[in-house]
Amino acid sequence: MFISTGLSERAVELWVVGVVEEALRAGPVTPVDSFHDFGGSSLTAMRICIRIHKETGVEIAPEALLDSDTIGQFADEVAARKNK
């Protein structure tokens, strides 16, 4: 797995933002940005969640990203699940 346990929430947040930025092929993306403002779709959200699962072991549904107000909020959810 790419990300080990015990990383700070900030480190996970930066990694997640990078994953989202790559998937959206947009940038720069920051934690306060909305996934939807960059044209994020359910297919893109699915791809992001699959990558997160493959590289961290964290299972998270695309709805978590689609329903988040900001990418940072989604990253916080990933971090919380990663550090359980």
Count every beta strand, where a strand is a DSSP E run of 2 or more residues: 0
Question: Helicity range of the residues?
Answer: 55-70%
Radius of gyration: 11 Å
Q: Tally the helices.
A: 4
**How do the helices and strands follow one another from N- to C-terminus?**
HHHH
The whole-number mean of residue pLDDT values reads 91
Could you characterize what this model shows?
- This protein has helices spanning 9-24, 42-56, 62-66, 71-82.
- It is mainly alpha-helical.
- The model has no long low-confidence stretch (mean pLDDT 91).
Considering the chains and any ligands shown, give keywords for the structure.
mainly alpha, globular, 4 helices, 57% helix, 84 residues
Short description:
With 84 residues, the chain is mainly α.
Strands, helices and their partners?
Layout: H1 9-24, H2 42-56, H3 62-66, H4 71-82
